[in-house]
Amino acid sequence: MPLAPHDLAGAIPVTLTINGRDHPLMLDPRTTLLDALREQLGLTGTKKGCDHGQCGACTLHLEGERVLACLTLAAQAEGRGITTIEGLAPEDGTLHAVQAAFLAEDAFQCGYCTPGQIMSAVACIREGHAGSDAEIREYMAGNLCRCGAYPNIVAAVRRAGLDAAVRRAGLDAAVRRAAQEVQA
Ligand code: FES
Ligand code: FES
User: Fold this and answer.
1) What is the CATH code for 90-184?
2) Is the CB of 148 under 6 A from ligand 2?
3) What is the pTM for the complete model shown?
4) 131 phi, psi to nearest 5 deg
5) Where are the beta strands (DSSP E) in the chain?
6) Going residue by residue through the chain (184 aa), what tens digit of pLDDT does each one get?
7) The architecture CATH gives domain 1-87
8) Ligand 2 in contact with 145 (CB < 6 A)?
9) Is the CB of 142 under 6 A from ligand 1?
């Protein structure tokens, strides 16, 4: 929701770089990143659950690290790359591998927690914390699911983590082959 004219007195300019695009805004300095996304920019893929840092529904990436948007001031995010669920998939219309894994494993029911789960899962895999189901549960523990889809969520993260490992191994092998060819 845009600021009303009488609210603009204390507003500060903040430019948010979201999914590769700059968004100049005038904001109350107390505006959270979550409210800026949802109410100022209409980016409602990042969900508001508790608004108190306890459910993980608002998880997004700031400079590649997962953060809770409800506990982050929009002004703190200025000049840092923000990735939301809307910017996760490639522009060619295909799904991100983690999104595809959630679909394949039926890892949601109502879907409200799903964007936060997926953003956490991407980070969990990138951080190297998808090595076992116990590790996945530990590093996904900040993301609650009121529908109790946890077994399927763990299966989806496991599947996407394995896919990522296979891709990395394939790339490593390709790089080794290319290096051997150069040396030959
Ligand atoms: S809405 Fe941010 S953690 Fe619940
Ligand atoms: S799928 Fe409903 S809250 Fe997780």
Assistant:
1) 1.10.150.120
2) no
3) 0.89
4) -75, -25
5) 12-18, 21-27, 59-62, 65-68, 81-83
6) 455 545 678 999 999 999 999 999 999 999 999 999 999 999 999 999 999 999 999 999 999 999 999 999 999 999 999 999 999 999 999 999 999 999 999 999 999 999 999 999 999 999 999 999 999 999 999 999 999 999 999 999 999 999 888 888 887 777 777 767 767 6
7) Roll (3.10)
8) yes
9) no
